[in-house]
Specification:
Helix content: over 70%
Mean pLDDT: 84
Shape: globular
Largest sheet: none
Keywords: Membrane, Transmembrane, Transmembrane helix
Structural class: mainly alpha
Order of helices and strands: HHHHHHHHHHHHHHHH
Oligomer: single chain
Low-confidence stretches: none
Protein name: MFS transporter
InterPro entries: MFS_2 (IPR039672), MFS_trans_sf (IPR036259)
C-alpha cells in the first residue's frame, strides 16, 4: 500500500482545521469593524480610514513572499515549519488588543496613526503563522480527495469562526456603553481565541527525519520576491488559480467591510449585522461537506466554478436593496453563504495540487514560496475590497461621525452602500469564473504527480 491510499488521521485533520479559527477571526473582525471603528468612533474620514487599513495590508503583501521563502529554508534546515507559526500565534493577541486600544480624547490624526502601527504589527504576526499554514496541506498528503477532505473541514471551522467573530464580536462591543471600552474588550477576547487556535494548529507542522533539498537562499526581501515571481512565471495553474481567488477575495472583502454599513444605513439597525452573518454562515457550515462530495464526483475545478456562479447570482439579486430594503435580504445572503463554502474549500484544496505539480517538475519543495504569494494575493484582495468600499462611500457623499455624534446619510450614500454590497461583488466573481476557465490540472494529473514522487511511496 502506498501513502497515497492512506487517509489522514482524524486528529491531524482536526488540529489543522482549528488553525482556521485564527484565519477566520483575523480576516473577519478587522474587515468587519475596523473601518467603521475609524470612521464612526475615532472620527477619521472614510478615505483616510481606507488608506490606514490598506497600508497595513500592503505591508503583508510586501512581507508574505519573504516569509514564504524563509519558511522553505527553515524546512530544509530543521525539517519543520512550526517555529514561525508559534511566534505568530504568541504575538498576534498583543497586537490585536493594541489596535483597538486607542485612548478616548486624542484627535483623528493621532488615532489613525495609532491604529496603523498596531495593525501593522498584528498583520505581521498573522503572516508568520498563515504563510506556512497555507503550505502544509501539500506536505500532509498527496491524495487528490484527501486534500479536499482536509480543506473541507478547515472551511467548516473557518465558517464557524466567521460566525463567532462576525456576530459575537459586534455583540460583545455593544455590551458596553462606552464605545472605547467595548472595542478594547472585544479585541482582547478575540485576540486570545485567535492565538489559541493558531497555537494548536502549529502542532500539525510535521518534523521530517530527513529535511528536503534546500531551495535557493532568500535571506533578503528581494530574494523572497524573486522566488515568488519565479513560481508565478513557471506555473500556469498557480497563476490561474491565484487570479481567480484574488478577484473573489476582492469581492468578499468588499461585502465584509460593507456589512455593518448595510445593517446600519440600509436596514436601519446596527444589530442586523449579526443576522446577516448568521444567514451567511449557517448554510456555509452545513454545505461545506456537500461541496466535498460535489468535487469527488465532478472535480474540484468544476465544483469551484458552480459555487462561484451561484454566489454571483445571489449577490446580484441584492441590488433590490436600493429600492426595497427589508428582511427578504437574508434569503439571498443564505444562498451566497451556501456557495461561499465551495468558494473557500475547493480553491484551497486545489492549491496543494498546484504545489505538488510544481515540485514534480522542479524536484524541490517550494510550498512556502507558493504559500507566501498566495497569502499576499489573498490579503491584497481583502484589503482592496475595503478600500473599494471607502471609495464608493466617498463618491456617494458618506458622512463620518465621531463617538456618539448623530448624522443623517443622503439617499445617494445609502444607495451606494447597497450597490457596493451587491452589483460590484457579483461582477468581480463573474470575472473570476472567466479567469478560472484556463486552469489545466485534473484528478489524473494530480494522481500522476503523487505516483511519481518517492516521498509518498512505501518501501
Amino acid at each position: 500500500m502506498t501513502a497515497v491510499q492512506r487517509p489522514l488521521a482524524r486528529g491531524v485533520v482536526a488540529r489543522y482545521a482549528i488553525g482556521s479559527i485564527g484565519t477566520g477571526g483575523f480576516a473577519t473582525l478587522p474587515g468587519l469593524v475596523l473601518v467603521y471603528y475609524l470612521t464612526d468612533t475615532l472620527g477619521v474620514t472614510a478615505l483616510i480610514a481606507g488608506l490606514v487599513v490598506t497600508a497595513a495590508k500592503v505591508w503583508d503583501v510586501v512581507i508574505d513572499p519573504w516569509i514564504g521563502a524563509r519558511s522553505d529554508r527553515a524546512l530544509a534546515r530543521t525539517g519543520t515549519r512550526r517555529t514561525w507559526m508559534l511566534v505568530g500565534a504568541i504575538a498576534l493577541p498583543v497586537g490585536f488588543a493594541l489596535t483597538f486600544a486607542v485612548p478616548a480624547g486624542i484627535g483623528p490624526g493621532a488615532s489613525g496613526i495609532w491604529v496603523f502601527v498596531a495593525f501593522l504589527a498584528t498583520a505581521t504576526a498573522f503572516s508568520l503563522f498563515q504563510v506556512p499554514y497555507i503550505a502544509l496541506p501539500a506536505e500532509l498528503t498527496p491524495d487528490y480527495d484527501e486534500r479536499t477532505r482536509l480543506l473541507t473541514w478547515r472551511v467548516v471551522v473557518l465558517t464557524i469562526a466567521i460566525l463567532l467573530f462576525g456576530a459575537g464580536g459586534p455583540e460583545l462591543r455593544r455590551a458596553f456603553d462606552d464605545e472605547y471600552v467595548g472595542y478594547l474588550v472585544m479585541a482582547v477576547v478575540a485576540g486570545l481565541v485567535i492565538g489559541i487556535g493558531m497555537f494548536v494548529s502549529a502542532g500539525t507542522a510535521k518534523r521530517a527525519d530527513v529535511p528536503p533539498p534546500a531551495p535557493p537562499a532568500a535571506s533578503k526581501l528581494s530574494g523572497g520576491y524573486a522566488e515568488g515571481f519565479r513560481a508565478l512565471r513557471r506555473s500556469a495553474p498557480f497563476r490561474t488559480l491565484l487570479g481567480a481567488f484574488v478577484l473573489q477575495g476582492l469581492a468578499t472583502g468588499l461585502m465584509l467591510a460593507g456589512a455593518q454599513f448595510v445593517a446600519t444605513w440600509v436596514l436601519d439597525s446596527e444589530a442586523a449585522v449579526t443576522l446577516l452573518f448568521i444567514a451567511l454562515i449557517a448554510p456555509a457550515v452545513l454545505l461545506a461537506p456537500v461541496w466535498q462530495r460535489v468535487a469527488g464526483r465532478i472535480g474540484k475545478e468544476r465544483g469551484f466554478r458552480i459555487a462561484s456562479l451561484v454566489f454571483a447570482a445571489a449577490a446580484l439579486s441584492m441590488v433590490v436593496l436600493v429600492w426595497a430594503p427589508g428582511p427578504w435580504v437574508y434569503l439571498p445572503v443564505a444562498v451566497a453563504g451556501a456557495a461561499y463554502a465551495g468558494m473557500q474549500s475547493l480553491p484551497m484544496a486545489m492549491l496543494p495540487d498546484v504545489i505538488s505539480h510544481d515540485a514534480r517538475q522542479t524536484g524541490i519543495d517550494r510550498a512556502g514560496s507558493f504559500g507566501g504569494v498566495w497569502t499576499a494575493g489573498e490579503t491584497a484582495g481583502m484589503a482592496l475590497g475595503a478600500t473599494l468600499l471607502t471609495i464608493v462611500l466617498a463618491l456617494t457623499g458618506y458622512i463620518e461621525s465621531a463617538g456618539a455624534e448623530s448624522v443623517t446619510q443622503s439617499p445617494a450614500a445609502i444607495a451606494g452602500i447597497a450597490v457596493a454590497f451587491s452589483v460590484v461583488p457579483a461582477v468581480l466573481v463573474l470575472v473570476s469564473v472567466v479567469v478560472l476557465r484556463a486552469y489545466p490540472l485534473r484528478r489524473a494529473d494530480v494522481n500522476a504527480d503523487a505516483a511519481a514522487s518517492p516521498e509518498w511511496s512505501t518501501p
